[in-house]
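haha ok so turns out i had the wrong file open the whole time. this is the CORRECT one, sorry everyone. sequence first:
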Amino acid sequence: MRKYLPFALLLAISFTSYAQNYVDIANLSYSITPQNDFENSNQSTAVSELEFQFTFPKVLDEKNTFISTLLVESNTLRIDPTIPQEYTFASLGLALGFNHRYSDRLAITYLVIPKLATQLDAMTGRGFQLGGLALATLKKNENFSWKFGLYANTEEFGPFLVPYAGFYYLSPSKRFEAYITTINGDINYMLSDKLNIGGDVNGLTSSYALGDPVFNTENVYFVKNTTEFFAYLRYPVAKNLFLKAKAGYSITRTYKAFEEGDQVDLGLSLFFLGDDRNQLNTPLAKGALFKLELLYRFPL
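then structure:
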């Protein structure tokens, strides 16, 4: 399973899931890995990632809710063993739209997601992307709901489409929770009134325009594609504020550089159609990683 949108955003925009009794308003996370080796090389690099999401839902009437979400993320690492310096790739985006409740069972969220994704210290006029998401929630009963939808974006490597399907379940005791889909997942259990244990699969496919000329070419873009499994503990540090300590392993981890214009015909979930691109850099090996998250959860 892979996650193509930040998991906190998917939870936040699906707060009309009926069974879910909260909405995550804000999420701040920082992850770092030990030194990651480049494949077939004695060189290595640290990888640090920072993510922040803030969602503001405003109820317009009994059927419509306006949604706006600020999305910020950055990644710092060396991109090749032949290049000693670290690069920071960052994106700034907004998710704007609304949720419409069609009936007591069906609600659909529609979002437009423009963002700028580029090298932080050498920003370029390139890197603007435009995405969109339609996410439906179909209630089965008070504890179970189906999810299905479609995400699309204009990535640096070409058009990208991700179908989405799954379910959300909250046990009658409200101690066990599961959010399982074709692209992400989270299962957790309340060990006590405060301590929560769980596991999730976090992944991301995103692309950034480089500002500096590298690999003897002027315009290069960089693609991050990761699938990571975490086990975590969650504990409240203040009212509605939770700290999550996570340890995990990268099931897949690729950070690839390509020349601008070297694109695929279509990115479709796990597959790339018409992909004959020439990768310019050396990939990283898989490895362990650690992550801390602070989230503000508003009870409904």
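The chain has a mean pLDDT of 88.
again sry for the mixup
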